[in-house]
Amino acid sequence: MTGRLYVVGLGPGDAALVTPQAAAALAQASDLYGYFPYVARVAERPGLTRHGSDNRAEIARARAALARAAEGGVVAVVSGGDPGVFAMASAVFEAVEQGPEAWRTLDIQVIPGISAMFAAAARIGAPLGADFAVISLSDNLKPWNLLLFRLAAAAAAGLVLALYNPISRARPWQLRAALKHLGTVLAPETPVVFASAVTRPDERIEYLSLTEATMATERADMRTLVFIGTAETRRIARAGAPDWLYAPRAVRVP
Amino acid sequence: MTGRLYVVGLGPGDAALVTPQAAAALAQASDLYGYFPYVARVAERPGLTRHGSDNRAEIARARAALARAAEGGVVAVVSGGDPGVFAMASAVFEAVEQGPEAWRTLDIQVIPGISAMFAAAARIGAPLGADFAVISLSDNLKPWNLLLFRLAAAAAAGLVLALYNPISRARPWQLRAALKHLGTVLAPETPVVFASAVTRPDERIEYLSLTEATMATERADMRTLVFIGTAETRRIARAGAPDWLYAPRAVRVP
Questions:
Q1: Which residues are within 8 A (CB) of B80 and not within 5 positions of it... i.e. 6 or more apart?
Q2: Which of residues 184 through 213 in chain A touch B, CB cutoff 8 A?
Q3: What is residue B254's predicted lDDT score, i.e. its pLDDT?
Q4: Looking at the partner chain, which of B108, B119, B236 has a beta carbon nearest the beta carbon of A97?
Q5: pLDDT digits over A170-210, tens only?
Q6: Is the CB of B133 less than 8 angstroms away from the CB of A11?
Q7: Distances in whole angstroms, Cα of residue A160 to Cα of each of A51, B171, B201, B212
Q8: N or C: which end of chain A has fewer CB within 10 A?
Q9: Cβ(A160)–Cβ(A227) under 8 Å?
Q10: Is B43 within 8 Å of chain A by CB?
């Protein structure tokens, strides 16, 4: 089987954060698969067929892409950020495992990307400079109580949290409930950042305390990444410019 | 104050994974600061002074770089991978907070990079496709017992683990002790991957069980990233090619 399938990370949005490796894979592709807005980020050109699909259609999209690669196409499945973080890489391998034996012989290459969380962290300072956990707040694919358990366990262990998929029209109350739950293990003044549409023209970054964030979850949306600091997190005040937030490398011992 | 300081992520090693934004910052720099092997990855050119330093000298290096920027230099502080993950961004902001007030007015920009963990994950499949924790195994900057507590808490909560700095000449026994401790909360057959020198000519990726890994920690070194899966992690066997490992998007409910 000669087909090839690239799972490509497009980064957070800024074209200057697309790697040369990702650009080279996109330049070779005959077929492009992905969620509509990500497919739209790749310029049209002769010889490239774009197959945009809906947000929730990951497995069907992965199967269509694999079938096309099995026919001999050079297929690129695109994700925003890094494809291995709550994105298409898992869906592709899930489809491979459940699919025809022949799909296992395909040349599948995952091409990493600048994740939304690293792009957002870079804007803020270095909030992820110490141990951290990365958790999706979507309860579509895991039980809500497990999610609460994970959040509290990670926060109680002193890990900084980066939360993906904090809120959507179909999941309007989860973020507030999650922050309230974190209030049982973290101090009210724990720093929280809502980083939205990072590197895009409408980028918006808000510094809040845990208490403030819990009361202001309507300021987050599908394109928001939420950071929750620890007792160690430091904030550097600046005159006339946004503060810097960072995680010190060392943990203070009482 | 007109000086500028970029904290630049060089990615895991492959030049095709250096972003155009990182390349542009490096092209502007008058002075380059970093650990010797990272500085060596940036080509010499007229007008660029390279200031390599030792591995453990992060704060001193950050201060020297900030002082140079305060004199009006265009400074690039380079890290492998992403500068916000156990790398120079935290050290720079720590030095800013402790340094002269004037350093707060510097134009400091963190430029994200492809982290070693995402490059390694891409090679393996999608081991980080679900909730995960990123933990440095160095006990230079935090108490060993806190580290064990974090590892067990994250593993018991069902998070995939990505372990940085697993082993070094000065810290030879920590990885085995950490894996043994994880054996108290994870099954012996839990998948472990040692991913070394990813994207470099001497790249080496080894699939082990937790039991095997505990007995084979000498196969890891300073350039190894260790992944530890969960009960959910899936492995796709392939004939004549390395297996794929991935974290399914959904958590099975018993």
A1: B9, B10, B11, B12, B13, B35, B37, B38, B87, B113, B116
A2: none
A3: 67
A4: B236
A5: 999 999 999 999 999 999 999 999 999 999 999 999 999 99
A6: no
A7: 37, 25, 34, 30
A8: C
A9: yes
A10: no
